[in-house]
Amino acid sequence: MTRLMLGRTLERICKGILLLCLVHFAIMMILYWDVYIQRFDIFNRFNTRNYSRMSHFFNFSKPNSTLPTLGIASDHFLASEKSEANVTTEKPLPPCPDVPPGLVGRLLIEFSTPMTQERLRKENPDVKEGGRYSPPDCKARQKVAIIIPYRNREHHLKYWLHYLHPILRRQKIDYGIYIINQHGDDTFNRAKLLNIGYKEVLKDADYDCFIFSDVDLIPMDDRNLYHCYDQPRHFAIAMDKFGFRLPYAGYFGGVSGLNKTQFLKINGFPNEYWGWGGEDDDIYNRITLNGMKVSRPDVKIGRYRMIKHDRDKHNEPNPQRFTKIQNTKITMHRDGMNSLQYHLIETVRYPLYTNITVDIGKPPPRPPRG
Ligand code: BGN
Q1: Whose Cα sits closest to atom 11 in ligand 1?
Q2: Taking the domains of the chain in order of start, what are their residue ranges?
Q3: What pLDDT score does 370 carry?
């Protein structure tokens, strides 16, 4: 009898505790629901997941914003986060050291590990929408836009993002990644895409330094610092495909960087090199003709691996390049930023980069022979 009573009492106590827990949980949910929605942006995430299933693999997820419209909302979100942070940390950040302390030097670069969007996102939790990052513990001296001319190279872009984001983070660079995507199938025009990049990224932030990088080039040493220098910089000086040497003294291809003054002094890059080759030599000519010199890292540090690929369609060697590079002195004044024309199709921010798609037109018809 007493056992039975004891059992019942225990059962009641347990039920009571369970009920209390449920009530407590319900109150918590009511109190924090609003905070959860705002803080973790629950509805947005739900939509994002649905979208990513439908979208093309490499677009990662639903683009949260385009620059002209939703970008404003996203800036607002960042701004409110910043003001929260200001309440707790009032001290301004110290300037970043000239030599970042966390560099590791020579890197192992390979392209056989499968690269997935989940992996890329996990590796880069601190990168903000659109591929923006600034060091949390110091104020970088320059704001760097990395501009990549692009068409149909998803495979390369994955590896580029996989290697470059962590390198740039260790280098304590304040940066944004911008893909300038040539729309359509007409002849590729690398230098014109780079000019467009310069113009478009300045709509996004007040960048001081512009680094122009091919999507298939990965630095093999993180001491090759991605910022601008007193003179226009050539970074990719020792590529594997050239036996880790400069192929010729005036080579300026692959990865280069200019600050605003240097870029505007040469009227930007030529818009009239359609197809492969010569545009980098024209840029080199512009630099030297305007009294500047090219600055380069040590040959042991400026090493690069190129991701192997077949020649792109619609990027055949440009037969006019040989004569064109003879005329830079004349053409640079009329062909460049002062003559740039294109049509912006869309700007979309993805988690690890901003994608700017543009219609750049096509080469002018060749005059008939004879
Ligand atoms: C050069 C190309 C560059 C290219 C390098 C490396 C020309 C102009 C006529 C001499 N220049 O020969 O554009 O980056 O090779 O591949 O073709």
Answers
A1: 278
A2: 2-62+70-87, 117-359
A3: 54
Contact between residue 285 and residue 325 where contact means Cβ atoms under 8 Å apart: yes
Of 8, 12, 39, 309, catalytic = 309
Tell me which architecture the domain covering 117-359 has in CATH: Alpha-Beta Complex (3.90)
pLDDT tens digits, 171-209:
999 999 999 999 999 999 999 999 999 999 999 999 999
Q: Which atom of ligand 1 is the closest one to the Cα of 247? A: 6
222 is catalytic: no
Distance CA 120, CA 129 (A): 13
**Any residues with CB less than 8 A from the CB of 307 and at least 6 apart, and which?**
111, 155, 156, 159, 216, 217, 218
Q: Which element (helix H / strand E) includes 91?
A: none
Residues with CB under 6 A from ligand 1: 247, 253, 277-278, 280-281, 321-322, 325
Active-site residue, 276 included: yes
DSSP-derived 3-state class of residue 1: coil
- Which pTM was predicted? 0.78
